[in-house]
Specification:
The complex is a heterodimer of chains A (239) and B (405). Chain A has 239 residues and is α/β, with parallel strands linked by helices. Chain A has a single domain (3-238), classed as 3-Layer(aba) Sandwich (Rossmann fold). Chain A contains eight helices and ten strands. In chain A, α6 links the parallel β7 (165-169) and β8 (196-200). In chain A, α3 packs across α4, α3 runs parallel beside α5 and α4 (118-131) crosses α5 (147-159). The longest helix of chain A is centred in the last third of the chain and has 16 residues, at 177-192. Chain B has two domains: 3-52 and 270-404, no CATH class; 93-230, no CATH class. Chain B is built from 14 helices and twelve strands. A six-stranded mixed β-barrel of chain B has the order 2-3-10-5-7-6. In chain B, α2 (18-54) crosses α12 and α10 (265-308) runs antiparallel to α12 (323-359). The longest helix of chain B has 44 residues, at 265-308. Classes of the chains: A alpha/beta (239), B alpha+beta (405). The structure holds adenosine-5'-diphosphate and magnesium ion. The site of magnesium ion has 2 residues of chain A, from α1.
Chain lengths: 239, 405
């Protein structure tokens, strides 16, 4: 199997010496291609920090992060932008759709930066939105969509450039249980189609739908590989 | 990402916030509008003044009191020119065909119970030929009138009209400074010269003027305000200027500084050109300053906009925008704002110029080149002042930007 994510003694420190916060503390972690895993842990344990490093939005203070075998620290801005554009799809808890753009235009945005011509953009955006069940909402602005629909637009945007890695930081955190189910079904389907999915969640019902749980505490991975099915006992033990 | 996409994106962003975009452009709009208007009107004024001096004819010269330097120093022109100077020029300068000394003052003119203020111009018969003022009715002042100091007056058509209305003024008596004058002629309409109505004038013999109206104020002889001279032909203007200058230097016993100036039509046109040149430099300076201020306005609002759009920038970076993509996007926004502002301002300026040429004798116009320069310079300003905010946007750390919610 191919390793897609590898953390080698990764630390992330915020602040200066006396106000120092170690968001990540000497983390070693690997995720293989095709995995579907959930990152869990108490609030402030470093889950988002880890996701941002994985998504090339943030750089470790020390240690190395290898994405698909490449040491990200060696990449310049252009190369990082290219990776964020092509290899990674990122879904945020707050959706982060551009309010002045329609669903379609939001989904087309990554393809604009990929230099894909307009007709192809429209076609692929339509396909992606159809895939998340929004074929009839192409021209709606974000404020004309429900939270669940907005998150599905965000997912369509994340997958439209056919990334190898889909990252989602509490994607269901702002959704009710019904739409959570819908979104999780989409993730499962995407994973089944070969995309590696890593998501942060604090809901064990959500984590149960993945195939691996990584448990964080105090900026460290204390359980790198929990089984989602017997999470209940481990959760109690881990906290 | 290609430029066309960036432009589309910028247009989308700018139209999403029309009020702000308009306010951002305001400085550039006002700057361009005022510059275009001023340049158009300035050029119109120059053309007007030039055409006025050209209308004098190429063989006309003027002798005015004082040197160009001394006129700059004192408000009151020195009273150094005399009727005797004019006579000497007429008799001793061979290249001269006509000499018309003028002594003038503004006075009340009365006919029966009507009174008006008009320019009283004491002169000699040559005036009519030198300055091409033709008589419509009756006759102009004659040599005899000047010799005897008769109380004869020729009226400009506007003055005749305001005093006599529809009735015939010829042979009637009018009063200037309480002295009776008999109307001997009515002049053809001549129009305005540099804004002064030349038809609201009463022409009387120079001798009558100096003896009875102004009184003699010069220690050198019969004072005149200035002397209009016609050279024999266009080619002898230079010679005439030289000869007149030498003659007057002799007569005035000049050792160092001239106390008079001989101006040709060419000199006058040159002065107009110089004034226009100075005006153009001044306008360019104002243009520069106002465009600079407009540019700062754009920069200012763009900086605020970058701050407000931090999240958007973070998101764009998260989905694959490079620093260059963001930089280009913001610079294009700035250029569009500036270029559009420049175009709108230019349009307003053209409107202003058109308005001015409709309500005034200045035939002002705006050249397409000026419009292109204005829009081009404005775009340049946008580029220049857009760089700082755009760099700030491009340098934003994606994660910091996304977290700014
Ligand atoms: N920009 C930042 N500056 C300072 N401290 C930060 C910053 N981002 C995160 N932290 C700190 O790092 C730790 C881990 O944060 P985070 O990764 O967001 O945790 P989680 O997502 O697991 O709740 C927390 O203590 C948080 O306060
Ligand atoms: Mg978090």
């Amino acid at each position: 199997m191919k390793t897609i994510i590898r953390f080698d003694h990764v630390s992330k420190v915020y602040g200066s010496e006396n106000t120092e916060v170690r968001a990540l503390s000497d983390v070693n972690l690997t995720v293989e291609a095709g995995e579907y895993c959930a990152i869990m842990g108490p609030s402030g344990s470093g889950k988002s920090t880890a996701m941002n490093v994985i998504g090339c939005l943030d750089r470790p203070t020390s240690g190395s992060y290898y994405l698909d075998g490449v040491d990200v620290a060696q990449l310049n801005d252009q190369e990082l932008a290219h990776i964020r554009n092509r290899k990674i799809g990122f879904v945020f808890q707050q959706f982060h759709l551009l309010p002045q753009l329609s669903a379609m235009e939001n989904v087309m945005l990554p393809m604009v930066y990929a230099g894909i011509p307009l007709p192809q953009r429209q076609q692929r955006a339509t396909e992606a939105l159809t895939r998340v069940g929004l074929a009839n909402r192409l021209n709606n602005r974000p404020n004309q969509l429900s939270g669940g629909q907005q998150q599905r637009v965000a997912i369509a945007r994340a997958i439209v450039n056919q990334p190898v890695l889909l990252l989602a930081d509490e994607p269901t955190g702002a959704l009710d249980s019904h739409t959570t189910q819908e979104v999780m079904a989409i993730f499962a389907e995407l994973n089944a189609s070969g995309i590696t999915v890593v998501m942060v969640t604090h809901e064990s019902e959500v984590a149960r739908l993945t195939r691996r749980v990584v448990w964080f505490r105090d900026g460290q991975v204390i359980h790198p590989n929990l089984s989602p099915t017997n999470l209940a006992q481990v959760t109690v033990a881990a906290v | 990402m290609d430029i066309l996409e960036s432009v589309k994106m910028a247009v989308k962003t700018l139209t999403a916030n029309k009020l702000r975009s308009t306010l951002t452009m305001l400085g550039i709009i006002i700057g361009n509008a005022s510059v275009i208007t001023m340049v158009g009107v300035g050029q119109g004024a120059q053309r007007y003044a030039s055409s006025q001096f050209e209308s004098l004819g190429p063989n006309v010269l003027f002798v005015i009191p004082g040197s160009s330097e001394s006129r700059n120093r004192t408000l009151d022109a020195p009273r150094t020119l005399t009727l005797e100077d004019a006579k000497a020029i007429a008799t001793q300068v061979p290249t001269v065909s006509g000499v018309a000394p003028q002594l003038q003052t503004q006075q009340a003119v009365v006919y029966s119970n009507r009174s008006t203020s008009a320019l009283i111009l004491g002169t000699t018969p040559d005036f009519s030929s030198v300055r091409t003022f033709d008589v419509a009715n009756g006759r102009f002042i004659s040599d005899l009138d000047v010799q005897r100091g008769t109380r004869s007056v020729a009226l400009g058509p506007d003055l005749a009209k305001s005093l006599f209305g529809a009735s015939d003024p010829l042979g009637q008596t009018i009063r200037i400074k309480n002295i009776s004058f008999q109307v001997i002629g009515i002049m053809e309409a001549k129009g305005a010269f540099l804004g002064n109505n030349q038809d609201d004038v009463a022409y009387i013999p120079l001798s009558t003027m100096s003896d009875q109206i102004t009184g003699n104020t010069s220690p050198y002889g019969t004072e005149v305000t200035f002397i209009s001279i016609a050279a024999r032909d266009e080619n002898s203007v230079g010679a005439a200027q030289f000869q007149i200058t030498n003659l007057l230097r002799l007569r005035h016993k000049i050792v160092t500084d001239d106390d008079f100036t001989v101006r040709t039509q060419k000199d006058a046109l040159e002065v107009v050109g110089n004034v226009a040149g100075a005006l153009t430099i001044m306008l360019a300076a104002i243009a520069g300053i106002s465009l600079f201020v407009g540019g700062i306005g754009i920069m200012n609002i763009m900086l605020v906009s970058v701050r407000e759009r931090t999240q958007e920038i973070g998101l764009r970076k998260a989905i694959g925008a490079s620093q260059d993509d963001i930089l280009v996007q913001f610079i294009i926004e700035a250029i569009i704002l500036a270029a559009l502002g420049g175009a709108v301002g230019t349009l307003i300026g053209v409107g202003g110029v058109t308005l001015v040429s409709m309500v005034s004798p200045l035939k002002a116009s705006v050249s397409p080149a000026a419009v292109m320069v204005a829009v081009g310079v404005s775009s340049g300003i946008g580029l220049f002042f857009g760089v700082v905010p755009a760099r700030q946007a491009a340098k934003l750390d994606p994660i910091v930007a996304l977290r700014s919610a």
